[in-house]
């Protein structure tokens, strides 16, 4: 992809800060029920005795590509303490590289340790009110939303991260402390709706 094409892609794909764009779930809301097919050939949903973190991903979004290793590291760090599920809802008819086969290739190349699910009808994604990729939702054991915000303060460069917002929220939740009310919104590419 040429530099000009990449710049155009970024300019047209960028959504996001979401305070004004935060439709859907609000803090304290229940996790919507769902069962979606994964890249592993199995259906997955929110049933688990552990807290749950759901993240909306893409196979092409530069924001996801820059953070997917950190998201996988989060899943490894909290294995056995937090269930992690990723969902891709991008429309395959307009974005062919968002197919389940491309998701499988992404998951394999990255060594994802969490289920990666396809929401082809986009019903689950609309119920969450996700607006961009990546978009993070952390639920307590009772499946009430306690955090909706960014992964950290440097999506582009892991070496520049100074504030790990999702980690801080997760640590507070696991320790039984209140999760900070200030939750900077995630930034990313718009979800490609049907």
TrEMBL record:
| Positions of the Thioredoxin domain | 25-171
Q: Which UniProt keywords apply?
A: Signal
GO MF annotation, one: oxidoreductase activity
- First and last residue of the signal peptide: 1-18
Among PANTHER family, the record links this protein to:
OS07G0260300 PROTEIN, THIOREDOXIN-DEPENDENT PEROXIREDOXIN
Name it.
Thioredoxin family protein
